[in-house]
């Protein structure tokens, strides 16, 4: 079922949107907003910005803005970001900064492509992707927790290493390999029959549903289990946690490895949820966008997943606006998600607090 074409007055909508953004900005600058008001103001400003921008971009165009395509594309593009955000939340909640989400994505995508293409098995591709990403997570944990290497520098090195290795082996191994099999869509009975939203939300591939389930699972693990309590404890006060008998290093290891498994699912999505093919640096910075979602989501799995959806929306926006022949260059449309990432993270500097021990190495007896 298609939505009817909605026509709105361009100038008033853009003017009202601009006014709302200015009011929200003034509230932030004044410092008088407290409690939930900063979040409310930010949400209003974001929605106003999107409404105003879309109204301006679609004004006087031959084709209407396709809302259904935008929503469906948002979910597809946000799926790997959700898994990456969950990876980042688990790692950083335990006190390990994970800048290597990009490398974990890329390693998982390469493994899914080569194993899936060779075996023509989706299950084998998923297992290979999880193994590859978890292996990269183990490298991160080993050098940051045992050898106390600077975690940010280590993450950058892992990203560069994986990019170089996958690029080399792509030329050597994947040129003559068949594409991996692709997941088919699974329509949920009854819910899939809901007009418009049923097709957009409940007629997706398996990884989309796993992503939704994973958000619930990670929330439950962190806030309703003893393991989650220990993870949060070693990320906030490792010395105090050690005093009461919690094994700080072992707990951090487990959190990083579990996060690596989730990033493996995200990396697999670049292959088996698209066209089954691998290209060099196929992730094109999506791991860094997932990290931004972690920060914007205040290291909470549900909020981080919500921010991943926001970035998925912005990523899809460039594709949705392309056919409208907007006055903006196509290169600028491609830059939109990265510009949004920079603006969003820069606006939160000093306004959000990471786990107290995030990025701080722990040596027993030295704290």
What can you see in these coordinates?
This protein is mainly alpha-helical and 367 residues long. It is 69% helix and 1% strand. The protein is built from 14 helices and two strands; from the N terminus they run H-H-H-H-H-H-E-H-E-H-H-H-H-H-H-H. A two-stranded antiparallel ribbon has the order 1-2. Helix 3 (67-93) runs antiparallel to helix 11, helix 3 packs antiparallel against helix 13 and helix 8 packs across helix 9 (226-236). The longest helix has 27 residues, at 67-93. The model has no long low-confidence stretch (mean pLDDT 87).
Give the CA-CA distance, first to last residue: 62 Å
Helix content: 55-70%
Strand content: under 5%
Number of domains: 2
Counting H and I runs of at least 4 residues, what is the number of helices? 14
H/E order of the elements?
A: HHHHHHEHEHHHHHHH
Beta strands, count: 2
Regarding quaternary structure, what we see is single chain
Label the structural class.
Answer: mainly alpha
């Amino acid at each position: 079922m298609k939505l009817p074409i909605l026509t709105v007055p361009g100038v008033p909508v853009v003017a009202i949107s601009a006014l709302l953004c200015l009011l929200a900005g003034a509230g932030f600058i004044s410092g008088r907003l407290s409690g939930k008001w900063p979040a409310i103001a930010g949400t209003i400003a974001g929605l106003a910005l999107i409404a105003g921008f879309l109204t301006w971009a679609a004004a006087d165009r031959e084709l209407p803005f396709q809302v259904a395509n935008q929503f469906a594309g948002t979910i597809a593009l946000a799926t790997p970001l959700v898994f990456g955000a969950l990876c980042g939340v688990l790692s950083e909640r335990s006190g390990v900064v994970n800048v290597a989400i990009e490398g974990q994505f890329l390693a998982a995508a390469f493994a899914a492509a080569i194993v899936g293409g060779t075996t023509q098995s989706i299950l084998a591709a998923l297992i290979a992707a999880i193994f590859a990403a978890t292996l990269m997570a183990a490298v991160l944990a080993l050098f940051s927790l045992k050898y106390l290497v600077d975690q940010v520098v280590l993450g950058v090195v892992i990203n560069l290493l994986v990019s170089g290795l996958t690029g080399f082996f792509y030329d050597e191994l994947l040129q003559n390999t068949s594409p991996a099999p692709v997941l088919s869509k699974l329509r949920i009975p009854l819910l899939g029959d809901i007009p418009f939203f049923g097709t957009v939300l409940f007629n997706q591939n398996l990884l989309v549903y796993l992503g939704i389930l994973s958000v619930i699972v990670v929330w439950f693990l962190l806030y309703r289990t003893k393991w989650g309590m220990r993870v949060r404890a070693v990320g906030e006060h490792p010395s105090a946690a050690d005093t009461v008998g919690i094994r700080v290093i072992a707990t951090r290891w487990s959190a990083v490895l579990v996060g690596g498994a989730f990033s493996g699912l995200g990396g697999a999505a670049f292959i088996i949820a698209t066209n089954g093919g691998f290209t060099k640096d196929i992730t094109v910075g999506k791991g860094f966008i997932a990290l931004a979602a972690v920060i914007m989501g205040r290291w909470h799995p549900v909020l981080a997943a919500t921010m991943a959806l926001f970035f998925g929306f912005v990523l899809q926006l460039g594709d949705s606006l392309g056919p409208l022949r907007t006055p903006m260059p196509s290169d600028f449309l491609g830059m939109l998600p990265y510009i949004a990432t920079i603006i969003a993270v820069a606006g939160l500097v000093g306004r959000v607090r990471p786990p107290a021990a995030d990025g701080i190495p722990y040596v027993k007896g030295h704290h």
